[in-house]
Structures are given as C-alpha cells and as structure tokens.
Amino acid sequence: MELRTDQALIAEWIEPGSRVLDLGCGDGTLMAFLQKNRNVTGYGVEIDETNIIQCLERGINVIQSDLDAGLSDFDEDSFDYVIMTQTLQAIRYPARLLNEMLRIGREGIVTFPNMGHWKCRLQIALQGMMPKSRTLPYEWYDTPNIHLCTLKDFERLCRKANIEILHYTTVDYAHRTSLGMRLLPNLLGEIAIYRFRRSGAPVRTEGDIQ
Amino acid sequence: MTADISPDSVGIVKPRVQHFAQSLQLESGSELPAFELIYETYGELNRDRSNAVLVCHALSGDHHVAGFHSPEDRKPGWWDNLIGPGKPVDTRRFFVVCPNNLGGCSGSTGPLTANPATGKPYGPDFPLVTVGDWVKSQALLADALDIRCWAVVIGGSLGGMQALQWAIDYPDRVKNAFVIAAASKLSTQNIAFNEVARQAIRSDPDFNNGHYYENGRKPALGLMLARMLGHITYLSDDVLDEKFGRELRHGKIRFGFEDEFQVESYLRYQGRSFVDRFDANSYLLITKVLDYFDPASAAGGNLAEAFKPAQANFYVISFSSDWRFAPPRSREIVRALLEADKNVSYVRIQSTQGHDSFLMPIPHYHQVVRTAMNRIAGTGGF
Fold it and tell me: Is B62 a catalytic residue?
C-alpha cells in the first residue's frame, strides 16, 4: 500500500487509536493505512462508484455521499480528526464545509492545490489565462475545481471563520518537500496541507475535561 | 420446457423441512404449540461452520432462492442471479440457507397449516407474527443446523428488515448484515398502501372472513387487486413508461373497460399469476408484519439506541429509483448506525427499476455485493 507524500504527512499527525472521518476518501488508501498502522476507527465518505468498490475491497467503512449535501448524518464531536485531501477546491460551499468539519471533529486536516504557486502566477501574468498545471490540468470551463485558492486565501478564510491553524506544510506535485517550499510556501508549494481546529478550543473537548 | 442449467447455477435443489416440537412464544402473546420451517441450502458448510449465509425473503418471496426444483422448471429461484457458483454470493465459498417464514404459504407453518386444535387450516386464526418472531424461529433453525454464527445475514426489503433485527436480537450470531432496499420502519404512506391491499382482499365476496378454504373458492379478485397495487409501488414511473408507455393492445382506443392499454393487461396478468401461487391470509399477515416492524420502539423510539448491542458490520444498499423504500429511508438506518458507532458502509445504486431493483442484476450493485462478500470470505479464511 503506497501512500502519497501528503497522505504520509497526514498519517504522522494522527494519534493512534483515534476516530477519523475521511471526506472524499477516494480508493480508501489513507483510511486503510490508518486502520492498519494507527489503529484508528472511522469512515470514508466518497461519491464515485469505482472508488467505493475499492474501499470495500480494502475493508474500510465507506459511506456514499455527496459532500455538497452537507454532513448532517454525523453527530457533533464524533471524530478526533476530519480529513479532506484534494477535495476542498471541488466543494460548492467550502467555508460551510470547513465549519461542518469542526462541528463533527476536534481537528480538521485539508490539502488543496495552491493557486499562489509561481507557475500559476506566471501563467496569469504573462499569458493572461487561467492557469493549468500538473495539479490543475483542467480547462476553466470543464473542471471539478470550482473554488481554487492560495495559501494566503485559505488563511484569510480561517481567520474570518474563527479557525485556528495548528500546523501547515506544502509539497510539490511529486509530494516532495524542500527548503524553498518551507521558506516561501505560497510561492513554491504546489499542494498545501493544513491542520486546524476551532479558535480557542480546548486541547481536549470540554466533555473530556469534566 | 427444459431449463438450461448453466455452470453458475446451483442446479437442481430440493427443499427440506425442519420440525420443531417445542412451542414458540410470539411477541403478540400467542403461542405456536409446534411448527415447521421449509428451507433450502446451497453450497457446503465448512468444517468450523463459519461460512453460513442466511437469506431472508421479502413479502412475496419464499425459500426457493436459487436453482431449479426440476429440469422442467421454467424459472429459477427468485434471487438466482445473485447466488450460485461464481456469483456475487459464491456458493463455492459460502453455505447459503433460506427458510420460508412463519405465516407464509410455501411450506412453513402458516394459515394453510392444519391447526392442531381443530384439525382444520388455521386460516385467519393463525397468530399475527413479527419480524422478531421470524428471527427467533430462524435462530432455532440455525441451532438445528448447528450454525452458531452467520457469516452473513442478507435480505432485500422486508428481508433487509430481518437482517437488521438479527443484528439487534442476536449480536453474537451475525458477523455481517446486508440491509438492501429496506427501512427501519414503514412510513405512513407505506402502511396506507398495505391497508388498501388488505381491504381489497377482505372485501372480496369470497373472503368469508378468511375461512375460504372450505368453500373451494378463494378471494382471487381481492388478492389480485392487492398484488396489482403492490406491483405498481415496486416499479418506478420511468420503468413502467419504458416498458409499456401508452401502448394500446389493439392499436386504437375502443371506448370500453376491457384492458385497452398494455399496462392494464400486464398488471392483470401479474395479479392473476400471483393468485395461483399465494394465499390471501398469508398476504394479509405479512403486510401486518411489515406495518409492525419498528425496532426503535423497543428503545424509546431511538434507533441508534436500538442498534447499541449490534456487533455486525453493516452494508446498507439503496436504489435511486426506489420510492417504496427510498434512499433517504436507508440513510436513516445509516445515520443511526453512525450515531451508535457501528461499522457501516452505504451505497446508493443508480437504477431505473424502482423497489424491485434489489432483485435485478444491476452490474454496480452486484459488484458491491461481490466485493464485500469476497472480503468477508477472505478475512474469514474460506
């Protein structure tokens, strides 16, 4: 089972034995890895039929659902982590979904393609056209990615939505990281990875403290 | 006509009857002094008796799930497309058991059976049973077959309800439950449809309060109407339109009440052939079983609470065109299972055939069942 580097980075953040919800879990690779190596329990949420078959093959719990329809099937504070890799940009109401993630989970983790990457900036500046890249190969009129943003955009939204960023990193298309990316993430990082929680939220939920 | 028995068929099968000498206490408070269940099995039970699958049938189903009773049979069992060697429920790996439920009319104790107190058929005096009673009787059959724990309990519609009840009532006897095209309880509209069906039967002049066996005439018209109504609700608007449209039998309107539209003669045919194979008292009873089903009621109306004891992995499957037990009804089950922290997967299959989709060989649907079953067999080591 090969994890993408962004998934491997996420896996390191997940405490063993925790409850995880993976939104847009794809073929279930990450959930299956976490179940096996981090002893987590939880569910993947996925809409694509082929992916669902692969999730079943891997033996993970998968719920077929459209993330745009919301997460009302999940109760408040029922997960330690709610993960969403490479999906935020395809969501109709990303701000609403980020809030939902923190309603049902203690922490959220997202990854998304960074529109602030220098190649994207150059394409707009020099060609005057919507950027296309290895991570964003679609034409503007035929893309599932309807809410593209930069690291800076994402962080602005988090401030506005009262979301505290706990950790972030960037990787390139091959999911490698580099010194440059660490110094100038919004310019050199192709894929952003964020871990966040509700601002001012206690480290553990109040129920745990009492 | 000789059936063409293909290599992926379970072939010629023979039902067996299990007699239970002990009495069965029913949820209603009544008691059956003794009873019989007729059932079929396919495949081989493995040495540690861990590969058994219980198939639960729906309203009009029976124990004849797969294969043929004789080479002359024109049709195989009702779920033959799902069960057989190499099929999604692979009988080379699994041992499949399917009983006819109590109160049915295919060989298990029911209204057609002689009441030991009178020597005459029970008829309308057969006690009303519940899904819980069925599950209890199936557990006794499992005991008789020396099956301690089902690898899988699977069913569609009312069959899916039995799978749910199994997981609740016998948590340590079900490893996996497939709940297909089901609901955790009937909606008001569902009950309303059932009531129309019952009234059709009960108002038939030949019904005779259910004591029609001695007349030599049965409430055929009433049962036919009930089936016609039911049949419409099992199909989708689209599939009816696709099959028949507004096609006329004689090419033009004749201004009369003969069956002019193709759909009319189709429904009449469906109704008539049902009368030949089903008993009206059984139909009445089983619609009541459906109406009464509500496992949440035992937990103060809280379905998640009702699921608390369950240990099974759940596979919940719905069909996009099913309006009798529509996908949101399956989502209610999934939601409660999530709330109860149970292992559950949910798939909504794109289909056009309405509630009956669960009986159809829809590729994605079968692939889902096949994948999950293979995984179960793989982890079970058989």
Answer: no
Instruction: Say whether domain B191-287 belongs to CATH 3.30.40.10.
Output: no
Q: Give me the percent of chain A exceeding a pLDDT of 70.
A: 95
- Does the domain at B16-185+295-380 match CATH 3.40.50.1820? Answer given as yes
pLDDT in tens, B53-62: 999 999 999 9
Domain with A183, as residue range(s), is: 66-197
Nearest by CB to residue A73, choosing from B338, B341, B372, is B338
The residue to which tokens 């997202």 are assigned:
A110
Token pair for B141: 């059959």
Contact: B372, A73; criterion CB under 8 Å: no
The pLDDT, as a whole number, for residue A70 is 87
B69 is catalytic: no
Number of domains in chain A: 1
Q: Whole-prediction pTM value?
A: 0.94
By the 10 Å C-beta count (0-12 exposed, 13-18 middle, 19+ buried), A101 is classed as buried
Q: Are A52 and B368 a contacting pair at CB < 8 A?
A: yes
How far apart (Å, rounded) are the C-alpha atoms in residues A67 and B139? 40
Residue A202 — pLDDT band, cuts 50, 70, 90? low
Of all residues in chain A, the one with the smallest CA distance to B338 is A74
Annotated domain spans of chain B: 16-185+295-380, 191-287
The residue of chain B nearest to residue A60, with distances taken between CA atoms, is B345
pLDDT more than 70, % of chain B: 99
Q: Is residue A82 part of a domain?
A: yes
Residue A108 domain-assigned (yes or no): yes
- Residues of chain A contacting B345 with CB distance shorter than 8 Å: 55-56, 61-63
The helix (H) or strand (E) run that includes residue B274 is helix B262-277
Return the CATH number at A173: 3.40.50.150
Q: Closest chain A residue to B317 measured between Cα atoms?
A: A64
3-state SS assignment for residue B56: strand
| Residue in B334, B368, B375 closest to A59 by CB | B375
Q: For the segment B178-203, what is each residue's pLDDT rounded down to a tens digit? A: 999 999 999 999 999 999 999 999 99
Which uninterrupted H or E stretch holds B55?
Answer: strand B52-56
Asked if B375's CB is within 8 angstroms of A61's CB, the reply is: no
Which residues from chain B sit within 8 angstroms of residue A43, using beta carbons? 338, 344
Q: In CATH terms, are B16-185+295-380 and B191-287 the same topology?
A: no
Nearest by Cα to B302 from B339, B327, B331, B330: B339
Q: What is the pLDDT of residues A155-188, one digit of tens each?
A: 999 999 999 999 999 988 777 778 888 888 989 8
Q: Which is more confidently placed, A177 or A69?
A: A69
Q: How far apart are CA B321 and CA B356, in angstroms?
A: 9
Tell me the ipTM for this assembly: 0.93
Q: Known catalytic residue: B265?
A: no
